[in-house]
Design brief:
The complex is a heterodimer of chains A (about 350) and B (about 325). With about 350 residues, chain A is an all-alpha fold. Chain A has one domain: ABC transporter involved in vitamin B12 uptake, BtuC, CATH 1.10.3470. In chain A, about 75% of the residues lie in helices and about 5% in strands. Chain A contains 15 helices and four strands. In chain A, the strands form two sheets. Chain A has a two-stranded antiparallel ribbon with strand order 1-2. A two-stranded antiparallel sheet of chain A has the order 3-4. The radius of gyration of chain A is 22 Å and the shape is globular. Chain B is mainly alpha-helical. Chain B has one domain: ABC transporter involved in vitamin B12 uptake, BtuC, CATH 1.10.3470. Chain B has 13 helices and four strands. A two-stranded antiparallel ribbon of chain B has the order 1-4. A two-stranded antiparallel ribbon of chain B has the order 2-3. In chain B, α2 crosses α11 and α4 runs antiparallel to α5. The chains are: A mainly alpha (about 350), B mainly alpha (about 325). The interface between A and B is large, with 45 and 45 residues.
Chain lengths: ~350, ~325
Amino acid sequence: MTPPQTRGTRLLRKLAGHRAVWPLLALAVILIVDGFVAPGFFTIRIVEGRLFGSLIDILYRAVPTALLALGMAVVIGTKGIDLSVGSVIAVVGATIAWRIHEGDPHFVILLVALGVGLLCGIWNGFLVAVLDIQPIIATLILMVSGRGIGLMINLIYGGTNPSFESPLLQGLSVGHLGLIPTRLILGAAIFAVLWLLIRRTALGLFLEAVGGNAAAADLAGINARLIKYSAYLISGVCAGWAGIILTADTHTSDPVSVALYSELDAILAVVIGGGSLAGGRIYLGMTLIGVLVIQALTTSILTSGLPPEYNLLVKAVVVLFVLLLQSNNFRKAVFSLFRRGTARRGRP
Amino acid sequence: MRERYLPLVATITVFVALFVTGGVFYKHFFSTLVLGHILADNAFIIIAAIGTTFVILSGGIDLSIGSMIGFVGVVMASLDTMGWHPLASAGLMLVFGLAFGAFQGFIIDFCEIQPFIVTLAGLFMLRGACFMVTLDSIPIRHPFVDAFAGTNIPLPGGGFLASSAIVMLVVLAVAIVIAHFTRFGTNVYAIGGDRASAILMGVPMRRTTIKIYALGGFYSALGGVTYALYTSSGYPLAGTGNELNAIASVVLGGTLLTGGVGMVAGTLFGGMILGLIATLIIFNGSLNGAWIMITSGVLLFIFIVMQRFLVSSFTLRRAG
């Protein structure tokens, strides 16, 4: 082999091995295809004093999933998983509708909603960190019963899918601050807080240490239980925020169908962002890219004029493809096929 | 040796206790008629859950069950409108289930992606495929469906064993044989118990993984066939969320989600407990669907905590 070729392939392999490349490439491809399919996809206009355009729409719709996925990234970093986030949203939504019906001040309701998210986190954390139950089963309990609890809360005052008005909560969800939608600012703020917490305090190090090897972390003097517990609290509060945004968006509490499959989207986003379910790593920024890949895909299927029925199928295929690209074995197989092809062609 | 049966005994005890409670509170509850109906109504979930038991025993998970049930239904229904015999379309779908499961198993092993994620993609893929086949509910009008619904074995006491329940009991027997009397079954337990040791002992990893998920796919397709014949229709949203019911049935049946410990027979009673809760709440009349979800959750919680302490007693003994 000649030196430049080796250097080239080495560079290529290095690039291919970097965790940010494949998700970013996928996002870029999706957006470029969109640009071709839908003219004016990239234009951002100002309509009625707010930013307007497909790119803004993708960001706007991605916020609830992004919040879930950020919390999920932290939990997955500790080798856990939180299946209950969709159900937490249902409970939070039902609580908001109930307290508004009771006439509480809306600022208090905001705190109560976050408190409900925290409470769900306390429950999950108790099962995982204190009782040592496998996370996937522990959070399955709340996933199965959470939507039922939401329905029960609605029944307290006899409402089925009650609707409500709340200027404060709707301002947070669908309102806009200057040109920018409030929920984008809210999402960015929560991301910033989480990032500072994970990357600028010891907590992030501890979380990753516990995820990498809980026993070793424990021996090194980290209180592994407490650290695991904190991950579920973070996830619960993130789900609480997502619940506030989603509930205020639809003006109603619909525990059966709100945020259906959102926990799966959140987990997918983390995995597309390069987070391994085996734990030990928290990539907050990459998780956001994963969320954007999923949301850009959904939006582009809708704008491309394909029937919405194709949404799930296309999503599954693209997600599987991105995951396959991240697998070493698959890349090796494809590369060796490719190399054999070029070698054969190179022969006289 | 006796501890192995403890979770199974606990499951059966809970089932009998629930059934007797129902009999005490409601007239006509304690009868073979109610029992037969619970068996028939939950047959498709239990069939799918039997396949999932193998997947979970090996330490994996299969989330694609619910979508598979829906997909099998819509394909069988649309083939019916083209004049296929239901048995022919059922055969086709069983082969499809086997192949799809094998495909998932291959990706899980070859690409080393977590089963959770691969079967999650499978969930989305099959549900999307459902919507591409049809958006409406399609009836299956073939006379065979009526014949299937009409077949039953009378039980003493006025009840009867419906055809779907018969199918379920037959495939359960087959699964018990596979799990406890074949080399494949032993390999499944070995992989679930300790993956590294299994590899060192020479368990063929890739072949076994592919077989496990193929078996899971086959059983969930069979669950779909049973569901389609039982409801004599195909509906693209059918089976939504059933993967959770199936997994809950397996857990209630005493199988540990960590893998390696559990029995296929337990899944039957796990599924029956879930069905019994729903029936009890329907018998009550004043309670609603929310209660079914909450009670299932509470029961799941009790079982999981119970298993947790059983397992810690195992490991303590092993360490000592």
